[in-house]
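FAQ
Q: What does a multi-component entry look like?
A: The components come first, one per line:
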Amino acid sequence: MAKCPVCQQPVDEAAAKAQTGMTPGGAKEVDPKAGTRQFHDGTWYYFDSLDCRNRFTRNPEGYLKQAAP
Amino acid sequence: MEFAYTLQQEALRREVRQFIKENVTPEVAEEMDMHAGAERPRGQGPKAAALYKKIHERGWLGITYPKAYGGQGGDRITQYIVEEEFTRVGVNISLGGSGAPAIMAAGTEEQKQYYIPRLIKREISFCLGFTEPHAGADLANLRCSAVRDGDHYMINGQKMYTTAAHASTHIYLMARTNRDAPKHEGISIFLIPMDTPGITVRPLWTIQNNPTAPVSTTYGAARTNETFFDDVRVHKSCLLGEENKGWRVGSMGLNLDRVGASRYLISVRRDEDIVNWVKNNAMDGFTPGKDPAIRDKIAELWIEAQVCRLMTMRSMSIVERGGKFTYEGSAEKVWAPEHGVRITEAITQMLGPYASLLRTSPHAIEDGVFGHNVMGSFQSGINHGSVQVMRDQVARRGLGLPSSRKSGKVEAR
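Then the predicted structure of the entire assembly, as tokens:
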């Protein structure tokens, strides 16, 4: 279980990537309620909401520093 | 100089209008409408398919594309007349935003032979994979990477606001192929089927989704998407144009996409709506058409709409004669959406609180279309190149002002 680097809420990476449907064009679809992710500096980070993801995009280093143990 | 359509062109317009009257029934229009349902692919229902087949049989799809690629080999004024009439009733026959202009300009013969006829017949459709969380207005900052591996590329990263990704068969993807180059270089364009393993679509719901905007709302889609790429392996034949020259291909394609009637007509439809409404309605004993302030504003908007029309025709004229087309599409992309915002603001002032009511209100005018347009009109100034970026292009390419661009490398993916 990952932790949202912005609000610290747990995020299930498998659920965020799990296929819940397929587009008519054949792409995998996922459940938007299961969180989202962002590829930053070689690593995928998981977020519980788009709002947290947007905050992270504006200041990734600040949130990663804050989230560091 | 004869500043008018020829008799043949006027006859064509009448023919198209008659066709629309006979074939674009309310049932067909509802299915065709871009906001009729976020989960239903736009224009891909059975009624829409039958309509497009008829339009194709009349020779009105892909008018300006060569016959060798399934087009009609016609001129842009003909395309404009037909497109203007169909756009007015919400039927999109344009190939703008489809990737087709860029494929014609930069594609291999094989790519043109495969994609153009299928795009014209609406058998396939592209969504645009450009914007990223780190790269919106500053698109050259994109980090989605495509790493060469023999005859293939391995793609990893993500895209934002990939409108119609949930309804398209292909994506027109901009990715970084050289991380050591200055950021405007080292970018390439790929044409990729959406069913390639590793592509994931996540819905993003917009302000137009709840309640869903009514039929004939012009601005804003109910759904857009995030699109993820996890080890997506594509053959090198998916590359459009030369490797690392994608910035030029993409910019040229976007600029050419802006040529045509649909860009300005989305706003002109609103002009026509409010003129018709003011002519034919009264509110609580008040006849808007008799109010001097309203008449003045409507005349002002009509003049603005004519500027949109003339800018569009100028762009078409330049492209038609093979002239240098650099900033003109950008100028249109500033004027048309900002005109659209001014229309919605003016309608709000004219109709007062009624203009803000959405379709769920029992007091909504015209099924709430004006209220939904107020919410959605601002999107058109952002998508497909924001008006701020367009102004910068006009300043640099049109007026020769120096670039303020920083051409540093992108430091991280």
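Q: Is there any commentary attached?
A: Sometimes. For this entry: The longest strand of chain A covers residues 36-40.
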